[in-house]
Amino acid sequence: MFESLSSRIDHALKVLKGHGRITEINIAETVKEIRRALIDADVSYKIAKSVTDTIKEKAIGQQVLISVTPGQLLIKIMAEELTQLMGATHQEIKLNGNPPVVLVSGLQGSGKTTFCGKLAHYLKAKGRMPLLVAADVYRPAAIEQLKVLGEQIQVEVFADIESKDPVSIAEKAIQHASIYGHNPLIIDTAGRLAVDKAMMDEISRIHKKVKPSETLFVVDSMTGQDAVNTAKAFNDVLDFDGVVLTKLDGDTRGGAALTIRSIVQKPIKFISTGEKMEALDVFHPDRMAQRILGMGDVLTLVEKAQEQFDVEETRRMTKKLHKNQYNLEDFFNQLKQIKKMGNIKELASMIPGIGKQIKDVEIEDDAFKPIEAIIQSMTPYERQNPEELNGSRKKRIAQGSGTNVQEINNVVNQFMEMRKMMKTVSKLSSSGRAVKDFSTLRG
Predict the structure, then answer these.
(1) Which residue from 156, 245, 271, 324 puts its CA 20 to 30 A from 282's CA?
(2) Which residues contact 342 (CB under 8 A, 6 or more apart)?
(3) What is the bridge-based pairing of β-strands 185-189 and 101-106?
(4) Percentages (nearest 5) of helix, strand, coil residues in the chain
(5) Which CATH class is domain 301-441?
(6) Nearest-CA neighbor of 61 among 16, 23, 17, 30?
(7) pLDDT along the chain (443 residues), means of 10
(8) Where in the chain is the domain with CATH 3.40.50.300?
(9) What is the distance of C-alpha 148 from the center of its chain?
(10) pTM over 0.90
(11) Summary mean pLDDT of the chain
(12) Sign of the alpha-carbon torsion through 218, 223, 227, 228
């Protein structure tokens, strides 16, 4: 996400290296490079110029403290301006009404239906009982796709295959939700290949009839400035409440994320990065600005971990670490929880300083499969006592997992090293001593 833009901005900031303070001369070249980077990321020239002019104005003449370099000062100013550009503060999804209704709109191919499933999964995890409503009666297999997603996340899908009237389907769904206590309804509406009058009239009729508490516009980030123009056209008709940016994990330049807020004056509420139902993030402008500038996003990483890791389980694991009882069974269970958090490379990029180092490294989501196969081929006793693995046991495990003894040795040796490290960290944290350099803990 934003790898090209981040790289270009990082390159621009190198101009300031070695300077004791920011001057009009050295800032001019840096700002020019930043402006080019924004334009190349598909930010409109007008907005790119406005942002960089403000950055330049704020930066010139500022006193650089002894402990702060000009580059660091400019990053701080840029983070503030990018945050303002993308909406300043996070805005929650509104779920008022009885039952609350979320109307999802957008062009065909933008990822609306997948987002509906992700949103239902997200809200279900928050303790709600969502109902997915199949109101796209035109796209072949749209209803079937929603049903598949609903089954995957165990959320009910309301569909009326006899009806071709989306307004009627939405009304019946509200009645159904009122009877069975669903909260909220998530209505998947039809899209078109381009904005047309028929689509706008239809979604406008649905909007007037169901009176949604939240109307979201889903936009494909990969379409760049076209996404911004489409959002404006929809907003003129619907006056939607927020934007959802999809496909941010693709080969996108990111301009839509940076400028859509300033064009339609509506907040970005969610970003979607992949096909997995867990791959949905609440949008925080300040965190996104930090990620663009290579500062990481530790808060989002922690939140993702909290969603997957049980507090009691974590305490139990800590006790096992203290007693040196942490085993491959525990590791395997935690591995499954980590995979649920999302794309591995995306997660790693949230750690400050790591993003730049792995930008050219391919990390497949199934990178853990060989390790999982090895652990699954072990008996419960072997998982709980990895130090007991002898030559004959390893040969049997290799045969069962489709690997070889050398690979098993690597997994076991790395696990043993990791267990030692985790035990050390656990002791330090429990005794109140700070771990000063996390960079040494990279695997």
Answers:
(1) 156
(2) 273, 274, 276, 278, 279, 304
(3) parallel
(4) 60, 10, 35
(5) mainly alpha
(6) 23
(7) 71 67 76 85 84 84 55 79 84 89 89 93 93 89 92 94 90 93 93 77 90 91 76 85 82 67 86 84 84 62 58 69 79 75 61 50 67 91 90 92 91 84 60 40 36
(8) 101-295
(9) 22
(10) no
(11) 79
(12) positive
Phi, psi dihedrals of residue 188, rounded to the nearest 5°: -90, 110
Tokens standing for residue 254: 């990111």
The values of phi and psi at residue 281, to 5°, are -120, 140
- Joined tokens for residue 9: 């901005």
Which numeric CATH code is attached to 101-295?
3.40.50.300
- Structure tokens, 21: 């303070």
**Residue type for 391, please?**
G
Give the sheet arrangement for strand 101-106, strand by strand: 157-158, 131-135, 185-189, 101-106, 214-220, 242-246, 268-272, 280-282
- Using a pLDDT cut of 70, give the percent of the chain over it: 75
Homologous superfamily (CATH) of 3-85 is: SRP54, nucleotide-binding domain (1.20.120.140)
Q: Where in the chain is the domain with CATH 1.10.260.30?
A: 301-441
Model confidence pLDDT, tens digit, residues 24-74? 777 888 888 888 888 887 788 888 898 888 888 887 756 555 445 666 777
Specify the residue for token string 């009404």: 97
CATH 1.20.120.140 in the chain, residue ranges: 3-85
Q: Using one digit for the tens of pLDDT, what is the confidence trace for 314-362? A: 677 767 777 777 888 888 877 777 766 666 656 655 555 445 554 555 5
Measured in residues, the chain has a length of 443
Closest CA to 102 of 27, 26, 185: 185
In terms of Cα–Cα distance, which of 277, 395, 391, 288 is closest to 349?
Answer: 288
